[in-house]
Amino acid sequence: MSNRPGGRGQNPHGLKLTNLDDIWDDLRAGIQHVYKRQSMARKRYMELYTHVYNYCTNVHSLQNRSSSSAKSKKGSNTGGAQFVGLELYKRLKDFLKTYLSNLLEDGADLMDESVLNFYTKQWEEYQFSSRVLNGVCAYLNRHWVRRECDEGRKGIFEIYSLALVTWRDQLFKPLHKQVTNAVLKLIERERQGETINTSLISGVIQCYVELGLNEEEPANRGLTLSVYKDSFETQFLQETERFYGSESAEFLRQNPVTEYMKKADSRLMEERRRVQVYLHESTHDELAKRCEHVLIEKHLEIFHSEFQNLLDDDKNQDLERMYRLVSRIHEGLGELKNLLEQHIYNQGLTAIEKCGDTALNEPKQYVQTILDVHRKYNALVLSSFNNDAGFVAALDKACGRFINSNAVTKMANSSSKSPELLARYCDSLLRKSSKNPEEAELEDTLNQVMVVFKYIDDKDVFQKFYSKMLAKRLVQHNSASDDAEASMISKLKQACGFEYTSKLQRMFQDIGLSKDLNERFKGHLQTNPLDIDFSIQVLSSGSWPFQQGFAFNLPSEVSRFVNF
Questions:
Q1: Per residue, what are the HEC states of 416-464?
Q2: What pTM value is reported for the model?
Q3: pLDDT > 70? residue 450
Q4: How far apart are CA 181 and CA 176, in angstroms?
């Protein structure tokens, strides 16, 4: 077989196509075959594709030969593939309309699950068939449709999109109310504990999403979700609020708040899973917001009342659940923070009051009582309130209040009693004793002391007492550990700055220098022995909390060895 010039104008079967009527019957038969979901051989598929291809290209050359007789309508270019593409496009559109009109007759009177079964089955099959048709018309899409869209013509779509638009107009619009109502009923049955066929819902949702075409710019394949939101989501959210509004009110009438919180928590998780299983992901945020409003925000006053009971009964797990729920509400935690602060304050006052008069002269008992309260509620804030900064602040405010003003400070008639007792407790830890703890345990205890120190208002009073006691320990060589003394000064410096501890550090340094001086003097005595044994401490003026201005006379045993 020889190739002749102009052979491109013939199809593989050697048939010259001159007008649409010559190919339409065979093309329509093939399309009907596709929409009946019957298997199709690849050869037959290529025949249908070739009909479209050869028709467009061959008629284009025919149109060129007769262009002298062609007339322009409204100034538009009607030559060649544009004109023929439009006629083919119209016939495809009419075919789809007729097919769907006949299909509608089978589903118009169906309700509930019957209409869902019909709708999802027909949609799945129609969608598949339309993709096959889109492949058959690929040449029409690439050339005529794209050209029309590029020139700004409205209402022209690729064939698959045309199929979607036709479904929307011919089947979706007449049926969507009963389909949506059936979906909502199915969801409510699931919420009531029934097991449902979720594929029916996901099939409908997938269809609604797919129908959200961007008709203003057909070339833009992005979906607008307009059909999904207008025909399903709006009504779904309203039904969700109605359902949970009724359920929550009834449940609270018959059950304690702690059980309601478990129910609300479970419902919120169910709705999150519902989005994952069969709703569109864009629904998640608004659905969560509506559920949180009706399940939590509307009942905040009940939650606040129950919060105090949970604190009183140490129901930490229920407190954690309440925090997790209420934290979903914008600025919903404010009242819980206030309640927690007042509760810790009251607990602190009560604990110190129980100590009675003994705490006035028992620094360890006083400080340990404070630490017990702080330790308990610090653990609560960490575990039940996720170490939330607002609840940490509530703990700090409460501790500051009861530490600086309580039964002990009132008995002493002095707001400086707390810093004094804390300083005395430090002295008992750092002074030599048969009960001194191990070094690691002592370091941990000093860290606990700093927890209380953080809340002391009058830190200068603490410094005054601490300085006097440190001086005594150093001068009398009564410190349990130089390392522990240095560590405590370092902690105070970190908390209050260099200026706060400058005198304490100089005192500590003076003792170190004096030790070195005495060691050197002892070395000197090896070659210049004396008949007496003594040591001297040289202390810098202005750093030590001792009275000054008295006359100092050397002992006679020493003065005779001094050269003036």
A1: CHHHHHHHHHHHHHHECCCCCCCHHHHHHHHHHHHHHHHHCCCHHHHHH
A2: 0.77
A3: yes
A4: 8
